[in-house]
Amino acid sequence: MTTHSPHVSLHQIAEVRMGVTLRGRDATRPVPHGSCYMIRISDLSDDGHLITQDLHQFEPGEDINPDLFLRPGDVLLPNRGTRCTAYVYDMPLPKVLVGAQFYILRVDMNRVLPDYLAWFLRTEKAAAHFALRRKGTLVQTVQRKDVLELELPLPSLAKQHQIIAIDALAIQERQISMQLAQLKTIYLQRAMLLAANS
Fold first, then answer.
1. For position 114, what pLDDT does the model report?
2. Hey, is 178 helix, strand or coil?
3. Total domains present in the chain
4. Residue range of the domain that includes 172
5. pTM exceeds cut of 0.70
């Protein structure tokens, strides 16, 4: 007899809070040796990777709630726009923040792996959940309650590890396929140029 993984609402396995809101037009003005760093939506790829190591550095003009500084294992979910991506923070830098265009999800590590939750947030099922609930015309946003109400399967930690490993292989395969396609394009262009010049 096949047994199915139980389903839970996200609020049962994670805390959800909004990123920091800094006041003033110059609140995040770049400062080369500032004490804080910020991850922006444009820093994340669709498959949940940080695409730059050169994070925005600045000096806040106000005190920051220590709970808003990112911790290893925090899952970052953009709440503006229509992209469905999620990133698990794993950097050794101190004092890294995200703005209010992100939700920070802190999971119960005894029940769910951050990478598993990030994987699920990138699936079509999560995308469909958020697509039905986004609000706004010029800029669409996802409300915190809509994140908390998201239902997801919760398999054993061992099975979560397996899913994460398979997802990593799938991402690697896509990257290799893209590289091969680029190389093929270059090869064909060179072959056609050679033919044109002969």
1. 97
2. helix
3. 2
4. 156-198
5. yes
